[in-house]
Write a structure and sequence with these properties.
Length: 437
């Protein structure tokens, strides 16, 4: 079998690595991939000029010319612009939601209205295009309050305002100063939810739901969950906050209603679905956001634990025959993101990365360095450089979360590049629970 993975992040490295493990797979192509995907056995990066979003013909042409049996789409942008629809029209099997379903991530307004119509628990909200009206609403509601750019903003278009002044500033940034471009020409203002967050990711084939192992992400840039929101600075799996009872509630109150409503609307949901949840003290889940894809960095620890074949699961998903359970390593996994200088506000490129461990191809490695923003140097093909944003995700499997954190930190500490930044407290919620036992 030949597989094409679309994307260039740590999530795509983990997906490609899992696919390559399958004995039935001959080639995994990653478009455009990164230095890490280029080094994996059976894997090669390909440059398709039009993977960027609205133009999908290069993907279709590549699939037709290279006997591609399945396409796995990593990031949201091509999903939102209809890459899965375009592939299907061309008779190519592509795993992901259609453009209609991807609106759950592509438009916060669509997602909020969808949740309201289908009684899916979420924060109360209102949408605005006018800054004065938005500020008046904030004044009436009080702080803390959450201001979100409507469109795609790579996880960064959300401001949790502690004060009314911060909320006003965020509204001006988005609506008046256009800081998030078109994504911020409309804002959603939301009630601030309290509790502990968890990421709940499923595979859905239109009908059947296969929940992935649970996980928890760390969105803030700095230790102690402070600083600006990022795409995610680290994650671990499973998330102890998702007890059996919480799991059942999420399935019945969140995931099943999405599947039912999309089917009723004539647009069955296919692909990964990611519900970002706030779990309150009573164990009730509220949806913070939907993503129409696997999470990044959640994919990295989740797929470290997957013992079923990713390729079989996707093939079953494409055939409408997803099983209800996959096989997981009982051990937890934890991934630490190493980001480039200035992330998330700015992004630096071209710094030499030292101390990367040798690639371990034995498949039973307990620590794996997934690459994201990396590239080979033009001058020295053995040199790996940073390529902006989140650079690496150092992921470890161990007997408990504390040990996984220590193992990941030990490898992370040996890696260096100019301005490298990472959090030493990934997994702190779960570690506090472990220490309390
Ligand atoms: P989002 O991109 O919508 O997932 O938001 C990014 C992060 O902002 C979330 O992971 C939360 O940490 C925080 N956040 C978003 N919405 C809310 C909310 N209504 N209440 C509290 N925190 C929120
Ligand atoms: N880690 C959060 C996301 O993938 O959106």
């Amino acid at each position: 079998m030949n597989i094409l993975v679309i994307g260039s992040g740590g999530r795509e490295h983990a997906l490609a690595w899992q696919c390559a493990k399958d004995d039935n797979v001959e080639n995994v192509y990653i478009a455009p991939g990164n230095a890490g995907t280029a080094l994996e056995p059976k894997c090669q990066n390909v440059v398709l000029t039009s993977t960027d979003a609205s133009e999908h013909s290069a993907v279709i042409e590549f699939c037709q010319n290279n006997d591609i049996d399945m396409v796995i789409v990593g990031p949201e942008a091509p999903l939102v612009t209809g890459i899965v629809d375009a592939c299907r029209d061309a008779g190519i099997k592509a795993w992901g939601p259609t453009a209609y379903c991807a609106q759950l991530e592509g438009s916060k307004t669509f997602a909020k209205e969808f949740m309201e119509q289908n009684n899916i628990p979420t924060a109360a909200y209102q949408g605005f295009t006018d800054a004065t009206a938005a500020k008046a609403y904030v004044d009436e509601q009080g702080a803390p309050i959450v201001i979100k750019a409507d469109g795609l903003a790579a996880g960064k278009g959300v401001i949790v305002a502690e004060t009314i002044e911060q909320a006003h500033e965020a509204i001006d940034d988005m609506l008046a100063d256009n800081k998030f471009g078109d994504a911020g020409s409309r804002v959603v203002i939301e009630q601030f939810l309290q509790g502990e967050e968890a990421s709940f990711i499923c595979m859905i084939d239109g009908d059947n739901i296969l929940p992935m192992a649970t996980s928890q992400d760390h969105k803030r840039a700095f230790e102690g969950d402070t600083g600006p929101n990022t795409g995610g600075m680290g994650a671990y799996s499973p998330a102890p906050v998702v007890t059996k009872d919480v799991h059942d509630k999420v399935m019945s109150q969140v995931i099943q209603p999405v599947v039912d409503a999309m089917k009723d609307a004539g647009h069955p949901y296919t692909g990964f679905l990611y519900a970002g949840l706030m779990i309150d003290k009573a164990g009730d889940p509220y949806v913070i956001e939907f993503n129409c894809r696997f999470g990044d960095p959640e994919t990295q620890p989740i797929l470290m634990r997957l013992q079923s074949s990713m390729v079989d699961l996707v093939a079953q998903g494409l055939a409408g025959q997803l099983p209800s359970e996959a096989k997981w390593d009982n051990r937890p996994a934890l991934g630490i993101v190493v980001a480039s200088k200035g992330y998330p506000e700015t992004s630096s490129k071209g710094d030499v990365i030292a101390g990367l461990p040798e690639l371990d191809t034995t498949n039973d490695n307990a620590v794996k360095v997934f690459h994201a923003g990396t590239a080979f140097s033009n001058d020295n093909e053995n040199e790996v450089l940073t390529n902006g944003g989140r650079v690496l995700c150092v992921t470890a499997l161990a007997n408990n979360i504390s040990e996984a954190q220590q193992a990941a930190l030990a490898v992370t500490a040996a890696i260096s590049f100019d301005g490298a930044q990472y959090r030493r407290d990934i997994g702190h919620h779960a570690i506090a629970r472990e220490n309390a036992w």
